[in-house]
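Tokens as discussed.
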């Protein structure tokens, strides 16, 4: 459903309540994801650029709700099984959304929440898994905030049994060996296919399908699952610009930090909406290369292959990522 908010072309409007029947979709198109990935990687490579460090996180978020439906707890599981599950009781504050007029594809939602550490739900007679999100996230750390671009495999409306299977197998990828039977997702067919692990290292896993085709995947990514997994995910991409904890505690710098935070959001919004340049007709003996060109404030399907600052060069990407602890 579309609603006319009376915003003139090229202008914007702050809205605290959405029109009836409307909601904010916290997703971006895959071309927008690639635009942001490429631009932010370029900022990482600049010696005096704004990005201080780069890191990756591969997590599974499970949303538990109690039987009364009054309490919701988010539990984050590290897919590399190196850290214990972290449980948060989240109390959101009503968001503020900046809507743009005209034909703009992206708006920006400014949101905040109290996140209170709590215990991981244990008694499944009192709790149930409401939704699960498997995430592959790239984080770019700035002075006062960080930009996260994330591929998400979302599982909502799942049964209790399906939710428990996803969480109980969250460490499955860390136990893979050559010969392991797994499932791999093929986006073009929107289906999970059985396959066998042929080779693997800390970053990637090479699998062979029943038709003998071979594919290399991110080892801890959402495209690889337990051999009994059959749930079709809702695949999306997201971008969020999250202020560092307590960064607004000093009154004398608060206005400056908020201004930089919003300026970054506006700039990344423009970058995300860039159209890829196409080759122009040339004479037969010339050619022109095709060029490729956030909170949290966040902007809003298919899986896309995200790259680190080294592009396809895993050596460069590892050098940048070395020393950075995976973000929880």
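Sequence:
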């Amino acid at each position: 459903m579309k609603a006319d908010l009376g915003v003139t072309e090229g202008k914007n409007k702050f809205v605290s309540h959405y029109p009836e029947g409307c909601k904010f979709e916290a997703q971006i198109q895959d071309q927008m994801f690639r635009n942001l990935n490429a631009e932010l990687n370029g900022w990482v490579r600049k010696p005096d650029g704004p990005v201080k460090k780069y890191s990756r996180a591969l997590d599974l978020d499970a949303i538990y709700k109690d039987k009364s439906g009054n309490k919701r707890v988010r539990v984050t599981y590290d897919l590399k099984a190196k850290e214990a599950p972290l449980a948060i009781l989240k109390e959101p504050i009503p968001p503020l959304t900046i809507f743009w007029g005209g034909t703009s594809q992206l708006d920006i939602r400014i949101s905040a929440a109290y996140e209170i550490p709590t215990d991981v739900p244990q008694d499944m007679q009192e709790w149930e898994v409401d939704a699960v999100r498997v995430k592959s996230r790239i984080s770019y750390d700035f002075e006062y905030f960080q930009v996260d671009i994330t591929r998400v495999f979302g599982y909502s409306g799942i049964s209790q049994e399906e939710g428990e299977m996803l969480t109980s197998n969250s460490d499955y990828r860390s136990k893979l060996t050559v010969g392991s039977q797994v499932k791999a997702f093929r986006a073009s067919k929107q289906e999970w296919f059985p396959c066998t692990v042929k080779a693997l290292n800390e970053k990637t896993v090479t699998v062979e399908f029943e038709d003998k085709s071979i594919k290399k995947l991110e080892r801890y990514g959402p495209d690889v699952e337990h051999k009994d997994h059959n749930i079709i995910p809702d695949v999306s991409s997201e971008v969020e610009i999250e202020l560092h904890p307590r960064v607004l505690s000093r009154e004398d710098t608060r206005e400056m930090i908020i201004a930089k935070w919003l300026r970054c959001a506006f700039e990344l919004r423009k970058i995300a909406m860039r159209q890829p340049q196409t080759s122009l007709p040339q004479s037969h003996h010339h050619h022109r290369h095709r060029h490729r060109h956030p909170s949290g404030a966040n902007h809003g399907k298919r899986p896309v292959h995200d790259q680190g600052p080294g592009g396809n060069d895993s050596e460069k990407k590892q050098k940048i990522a070395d020393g950075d602890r995976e973000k929880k």
